């Protein structure tokens, strides 16, 4: 069973009157139970949904079904985390099932226009399975490491509010972002961040984003501005895999300036860390990559070293430079992508590259190898497979407007001495599906190494 986190967060939550009454009655029943019967009853949770036998009776839930109303949220989290009604699949009556509703305990006047889903597929695109249907994004989805406590499950980023005011709950609402987990079948979503002292959902108004588990499954590294939500001064944090004990990392050397942010962390073997750093200002700047080693005992980044650099510039939406670096499974290589130009298309020209984690020519451009150079595409978000010979990416094709955003699997030929990387094959595994697919990640279970998970919208 996954341990529910009860860590203090700032924020408020709208409660259904009925849920408040139910919780109050449950408390009364628990308080009146008394004696040895109380301990026995507390331990009785036949379906492992987080409700005791007496709570199941009081609430009218099925003690043999963890999700009585079939809304995707398990009964225990409905009561103890989301303030929803476990016997009503639409607790707030706004026409959205609780598990698909971005704010399941608050009536939303309008259903968001965009639909989202999380899918799995193999690396040839022949076994696509839809896991979730929501009206809010669940992205940055990754498999928890195979040996993580409570595995298997997904770790992902979600959105609790619409701070952008566009009517959707998406990456545009980073101030409302949160980190969560769910089962591999898409059920039982539960928050790791944005919980109050009682473990109830409570939007903390901070960016809690880009979760990346440690290879051993003990921790999650992420980017946040929870230290000062008035600024977009992201810093790197580490929490335990269950969301407990979040700590802002310190720097032994080369820490960020006050006008810089650190984000997009990646975690490799032997506690190697890689991340991006850029200026917060809107003026000319460059997104640079750094490598470091994490001292877990002191939560300090040591040996912080500039890996890539370039000339400051100004481009639409994102500055030039490198983003979202990921270390290969053996820690010897980095995959990333560089923003080169504004045209064509919405995102501009972004090119995928691979380089050695430590290279004698760093931080120069000669220390990285671009895998393709196509001004009509943006290749984004590379993720290594367990063998370190394939990358999954999402690509935006400015010429393919009928279905411009897809997941690709790239097979690589890698030579170590001298170091070289070439593309052997590039396969579009989501062509023609009618969705905008993005942010793929590989399975960590060696029994199914070719399984991928990704998000999509339409």
Structural features, described:
- The protein has 458 residues and is mainly β.
- The protein has two domains: 17-91, no CATH class; 116-457, Neuraminidase, CATH 2.120.10.30.
- It has four helices and 25 strands.
- Strands 11-15-14-13-12 form a five-stranded mixed β-sheet, with no helix packed on it. A four-stranded antiparallel β-sheet has the order 2-1-25-24, with no helix packed on it. It has a four-stranded antiparallel β-sheet with strand order 3-4-5-6, with no helix packed on it.
- Helix 1 packs across helix 3 (53-59).
- The longest helix has 17 residues, at 17-33.
- The protein is globular.
- The model is unreliable at 1-41 (pLDDT under 50).
**Unreliable stretches covering 5 or more consecutive residues:** 1-41
Q: What would CATH call the class of the largest domain? A: Mainly Beta
The proportion of residues in beta strands is 25-35%
Shape: globular
Quick tags:
single chain; 458 residues; mainly beta; Neuraminidase; 2 domains; four-stranded antiparallel sheet; 4 helices; 25 strands; 35% strand; globular; disordered N terminus
Can you lay out the helices and strands and say which pair or pack?
Layout lengths: L16 H17 L1 H9 L9 H7 L15 H6 L35 E7 L6 E2 L7 E6 L10 E6 L17 E6 L7 E2 L16 E6 L5 E6 L10 E6 L6 E2 L1 E2 L8 E8 L4 E8 L8 E8 L4 E9 L12 E7 L5 E9 L7 E8 L12 E2 L6 E8 L5 E8 L7 E11 L4 E9 L7 E7 L8 E7 L1
Parallel strand pairs: 11-15
Antiparallel strand pairs: 1-2, 1-25, 3-4, 4-5, 5-6, 7-8, 8-9, 9-10, 12-13, 13-14, 14-15, 16-17, 17-18, 18-19, 20-21, 21-22, 22-23, 24-25
Helix pairs in contact: 1-3
């Amino acid at each position: 069973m996954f341990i529910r986190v009860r860590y203090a967060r700032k924020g408020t939550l709208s409660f259904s009157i009925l849920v408040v009454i139910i919780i109050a009655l449950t408390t009364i029943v628990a308080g009146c139970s008394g004696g040895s019967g109380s301990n026995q009853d507390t331990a009785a949770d036949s379906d492992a949904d987080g409700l005791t036998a007496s709570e199941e009776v009081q609430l009218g839930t099925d003690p043999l079904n963890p999700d009585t109303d079939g809304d995707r949220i398990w009964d225990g989290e409905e009561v103890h985390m989301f303030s929803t009604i476990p016997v009503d699949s639409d607790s707030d009556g706004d026409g959205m099932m609780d598990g698909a509703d971005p704010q399941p305990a608050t009536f939303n006047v309008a259903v968001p226009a965009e639909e989202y889903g999380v899918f799995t597929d193999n690396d040839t695109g022949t076994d696509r399975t839809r896991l979730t249907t929501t009206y809010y994004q669940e992205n940055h989805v990754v498999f928890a490491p195979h040996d993580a406590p409570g595995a298997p499950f997904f770790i992902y980023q979600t959105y609790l509010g619409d701070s952008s005011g566009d009517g959707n709950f998406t990456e545009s609402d980073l101030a409302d972002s949160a980190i969560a987990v769910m089962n591999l079948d898409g059920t039982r979503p539960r928050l790791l961040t944005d919980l109050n002292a009682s473990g109830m959902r409570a939007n903390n108004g901070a960016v809690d984003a880009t979760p990346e588990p440690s290879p051993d499954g003990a921790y999650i590294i992420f980017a946040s501005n929870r230290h000062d939500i008035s600024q977009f001064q992201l810093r790197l944090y580490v929490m335990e895999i269950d969301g407990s004990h979040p700590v802002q990392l310190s720097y032994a050397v080369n820490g960020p300036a006050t006008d810089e942010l650190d984000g997009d962390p990646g975690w490799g073997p032997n506690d190697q860390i890689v991340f991006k750093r850029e200026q917060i200002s809107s003026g000319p700047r460059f997104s640079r990559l750094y490598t470091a080693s994490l001292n877990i005992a002191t939560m300090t980044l040591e040996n912080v070293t500039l890996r890539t650099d370039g000339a400051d510039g100004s481009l639409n939406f994102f500055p030039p430079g490198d983003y979202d670096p990921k270390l290969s499974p053996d820690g010897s290589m980095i995959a990333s992508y560089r923003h080169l130009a504004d045209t064509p298309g919405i995102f501009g020209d972004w090119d995928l590259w691979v380089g050695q984690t430590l290279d004698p020519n760093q931080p120069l451009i000669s220390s990285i190898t671009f895998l393709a150079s196509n001004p009509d595409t943006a290749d984004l978000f590379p993720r290594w497979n367990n063998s370190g010979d394939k990358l999954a990416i999402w690509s935006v094709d400015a010429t393919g407007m009928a279905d411009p955003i897809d997941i690709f699997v790239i097979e690589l030929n890698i030579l170590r001495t001298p170091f070289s990387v070439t593309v052997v094959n590039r396969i579009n595994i989501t062509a023609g599906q009618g969705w905008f697919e993005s942010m793929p990640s590989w399975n960590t279970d060696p029994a199914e190494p070719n399984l991928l998970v990704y998000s999509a919208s339409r």
